[in-house]
């Protein structure tokens, strides 16, 4: 090779830099996708002033966001809180237009750092009208099928991308240890090993991290994938009596062996973000727990994505809410929180944090660590190269293939707890060619009830106008032979049940929709109307009860009366999955992901506990063979 080649290359490169400079276009390394992410982060962080750095640490709800706010305050992230939508039944295109509008504001800032938009897609893209609504996590835990939840993650990522969004606050990897907790249905199981297995959903949401990747670095595998969020760190499912946002009183071994395994698995999978829990561990708020957030999560577990707060969590660190706000900001940032879900009073948060930094209460090194983590996730996501929505996914929302997957998940989530009053006379599967079937109950023809909380609205809803889907009743009507008469009565009286020659009854009852603290419940009885329907039907004709609930409920008083009992959890939009199994197109295969107690006085009671005396134990579930199908 000619001796003069190296100097020549150097000369040419120098000439290029000079020419670029003369043209007035500075070469910005952070904008060069050929550069390693670490160099892009270093280059960009060097260029940022304090306002720009702190702006990146702020997440606001779309309700207070505008392009001007994004530009003027250099806000790093926007979210849709539960039910925060552009308008009722907004189309994917309207979502895209909204997200792109905010993004243009961010791109018009001095350094043009794109914002990241987050949303709770916790059982499908559940805020969005016509999205596929998958079974809530408790039902997925009953499937014992990590590959299924991985496929659900992939489908969810596509439907989220259909609306121009690229970040989801999922999966919830809580280990619910007391069903009195209003969020128990967001937990896959009381067993940490099942929860750990279900973190495969992250492989679906983000893409499967290549073997040999360094532990802890965030990973996103393409434009059809999204950034995930393991939540809520840590011990959210272990609070006293299941009181939401309360105190998890347990020794370190118990915390690490029960509530931590899911996080380690998620970090090995390259999860991009972790959300801190409102709850406390032995009296210390998780949002103020530096030892667990920084020393353990970021240190021992080597997590290199960013830690986000929960909604208004800093306001809730003190009592009354928002008291000692400055001290809450100080302790949360010093604990290791990187992005704060403010979500409304962003000017107060920004001013408070600027004051804490400029008065040397918080070192710039802590701010730089937070900013580096946020930028690492944004560079990994490809947000600098592709900040605007990719409209090629717009037809993925509610796609039939995703609905078919949800229907498969419903089938596999059903747990058969009782099948006939006499051992060798099983009631299920039901014959499709019966003369007349009574379908009864508040949850048979009610899409809102069968989807549960976090559906269109934060608390979910009631009735069939909430979103698109198939009710359990419709699924039953479509499953039986045309000669079979289906009669639906939500709450039939005894004489009606007795005098109409029904072959048998299908009673579909359960809990109304709820989310978070609204779901905290100390008695866990089936709502009275449901109890009355069970009594009026099952005392007079053969019946199968299909229970729609986020958790086990008190069944003892009704058990003698019912011929068959199915736990269907919160199945979501594809109610046909229930009929598929009731009528034998598929067999029952689900297993209890949680202990089914006899009385609430036994709680908390989990598999492995001493004096374990359940009605149905963890892992219980009867099976049936499909009729006329090869297995
Ligand atoms: C809620 C929940 C959290 C959710 C967040 C944003 O209060 O605790 O799971 O991701 O706020 O909606």
Automatic annotation (TrEMBL):
Domain of life: Eukaryota
Start and end residues of each Glycoside hydrolase family 3 N-terminal domain: 50-377
Protein name: Myb-like protein X-like
Span of domain Glycoside hydrolase family 3 C-terminal: 414-623
Biological process annotations from GO: glucan catabolic process
Gene3D superfamilies from the UniProt entry: Glycoside hydrolase family 3 C-terminal domain, Glycoside hydrolase, family 3, N-terminal domain
Pfam families named among the record's database cross-references: Glyco_hydro_3, Glyco_hydro_3_C
Keyword Signal: yes
InterPro entries: Cellulose_Degrad_GH3 (IPR051915), GH (IPR017853), Glyco_hydro_3_C (IPR002772), Glyco_hydro_3_C_sf (IPR036881), Glyco_hydro_3_N (IPR001764), Glyco_hydro_3_N_sf (IPR036962)
Record keywords, A-Z: Glycosidase, Hydrolase, Signal
Signal peptide: 1-23
Gene Ontology MF term list: beta-glucosidase activity
């Amino acid at each position: 090779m000619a001796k003069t080649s190296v100097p020549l290359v150097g000369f040419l490169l120098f000439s290029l830099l000079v020419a670029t400079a003369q043209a007035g276009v500075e070469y910005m390394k952070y904008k060069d996708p050929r550069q390693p992410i670490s160099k892009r982060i270093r280059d960009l962080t060097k260029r940022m002033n304090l306002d720009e750095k702190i702006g990146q640490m702020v997440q606001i709800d779309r309700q207070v966001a505008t392009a001007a706010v994004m530009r003027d305050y250099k806000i790093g992230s926007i979210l849709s809180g539960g039910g925060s939508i552009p308008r009722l039944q907004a189309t994917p295109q309207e979502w895209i237009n909204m997200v792109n509008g905010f993004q243009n504001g961010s791109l018009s800032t001095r350094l043009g750092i794109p914002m990241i938009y987050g949303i709770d897609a916790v059982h499908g893209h559940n805020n969005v009208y016509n999205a596929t609504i998958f079974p809530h996590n408790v039902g997925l835990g009953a499937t014992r099928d990590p590959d299924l939840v991985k496929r659900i993650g992939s489908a969810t990522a596509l439907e989220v991308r259909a609306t121009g969004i690229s970040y989801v606050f999922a999966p919830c990897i809580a280990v619910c240890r007391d069903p009195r907790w209003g969020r128990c249905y967001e937990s896959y199981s009381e067993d940490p090993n099942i929860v750990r297995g279900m973190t495969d959903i992250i492989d679906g949401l983000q893409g499967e991290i290549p073997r040999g990747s360094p532990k802890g670095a965030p990973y996103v595998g393409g434009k059809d994938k999204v950034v995930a969020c393991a939540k809520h760190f840590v011990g959210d499912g272990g609070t006293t009596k299941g009181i939401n946002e309360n105190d998890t009183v347990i020794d370190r071994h118990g915390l690490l062996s029960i509530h931590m395994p899911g996080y380690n698995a998620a970090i090995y999978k390259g999860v991009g973000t972790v959300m801190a829990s409102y709850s406390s561990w032995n009296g210390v708020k998780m949002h103020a727990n530096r030892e667990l957030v920084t020393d353990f999560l970021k240190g021992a577990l080597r997590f290199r994505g960013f830690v986000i707060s929960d909604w208004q969590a800093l306001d809730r660190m003190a009592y009354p809410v928002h008291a000692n706000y400055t001290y809450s900001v100080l302790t949360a940032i010093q604990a290791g929180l990187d992005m704060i879900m403010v979500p409304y009073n962003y000017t107060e948060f920004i001013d408070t944090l600027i004051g804490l930094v400029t008065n040397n209460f918080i070192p710039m090194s802590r701010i730089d660590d937070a900013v580096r983590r946020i930028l690492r996730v944004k560079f990994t996501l490809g947000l600098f190269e592709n900040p605007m929505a990719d409209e090629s996914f717009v037809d993925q929302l509610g796609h039939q293939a995703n609905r078919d997957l949800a229907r498969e998940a419903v089938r596999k989530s059903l747990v058969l707890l009782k099948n006939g009053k006499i051992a060798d006379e099983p009631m299920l599967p039901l014959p499709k060619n019966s003369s007349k079937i009574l379908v009864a109950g508040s949850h048979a023809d009610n899409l809102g009830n069968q989807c549960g909380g976090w559906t269109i609205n934060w608390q979910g809803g009631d009735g069939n106008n909430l979103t698109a889907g198939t009710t359990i009743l419709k699924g039953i009507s479509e499953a039986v032979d045309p000669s079979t008469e289906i009669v639906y009565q939500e709450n039939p009286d005894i004489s009606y049940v007795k005098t109409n020659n029904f072959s048998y009854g299908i009673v579909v009852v359960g809990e109304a929709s709820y989310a978070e603290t609204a779901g905290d419940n100390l008695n866990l009885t089936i709502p009275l109307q449901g109890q009355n329907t069970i009594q009026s039907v099952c005392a007079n004709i053969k019946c199968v009860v299909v229970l729609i609930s986020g958790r086990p409920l008190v069944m003892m008083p009704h058990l003698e009366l019912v011929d068959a009992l199915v736990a269907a959890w919160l199945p979501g939009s594809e109610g046909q999955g229930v009929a598929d199994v009731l009528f034998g197109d598929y067999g029952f295969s689900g297993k209890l992901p949680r202990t089914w107690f006899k009385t609430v006085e036994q709680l908390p009671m989990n598999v492995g506990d001493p004096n374990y005396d359940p009605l149905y134990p963890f892992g219980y579930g009867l099976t049936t063979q499909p009729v006329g199908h090869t297995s």
